[in-house]
Amino acid sequence: MTEATAQAFVFFIAGFETSSSTVTYCIFEMACHPEIQEKVYIDIDQALKKHGGLTYDSLAEMEYLSQAVDETLRLYPSVPILNRECTREYDVPGTNLHISKGDAIVIPVLWKLRISWRDIPLTSYRAWLSVWKPTA
């Protein structure tokens, strides 16, 4: 399989599987955390009543729902690792690590590790994270 064919296949699968997995995990977490489910329900209900139904503006106002989806993606990333191939010789600054052209590079998604989040300002997630914890 050529690289272009492989990438086209990935784009096709990525558009389908990632959405269904995210929705499934989000619903699962809300079932495990009814207090969050209630807040999401209220958020959706208020936005729909204010705008008379499902509109672009009502979706834009569903901030808690948006946070629920964002947090679901953080806890259950659709793509847990990225595989790449080094395209040129590279010396990692501040280390004695050398990566040669053609080397396979695996980039893990580390959003669940405390070390990944300790220095990041968690503006809108500050209250959210105190309640929402992964069940898996």
Automatic annotation (TrEMBL):
Its main location: endoplasmic reticulum. One of its GO terms (cellular component) is endoplasmic reticulum membrane. It is a peripheral membrane protein. Keywords: Endoplasmic reticulum, Heme, Iron, Membrane, Metal-binding, Microsome, Monooxygenase, Oxidoreductase. Transmembrane segments: none annotated. InterPro entries: Cyt_P450, Cyt_P450_E_grp-I, Cyt_P450_sf, Insect_CytP450_Detox. Its cofactor is heme. The keyword Membrane applies. GO terms for molecular function: heme binding; iron ion binding; monooxygenase activity; oxidoreductase activity, acting on paired donors, with incorporation or reduction of molecular oxygen. The keyword Iron applies. It is found in: Endoplasmic reticulum membrane; Microsome membrane. Belongs to the cytochrome P450 family. This is Cytochrome P450 6B5-like. It comes from Cephus cinctus (Wheat stem sawfly). The lineage of its organism: Eukaryota, Metazoa, Ecdysozoa, Arthropoda, Hexapoda.
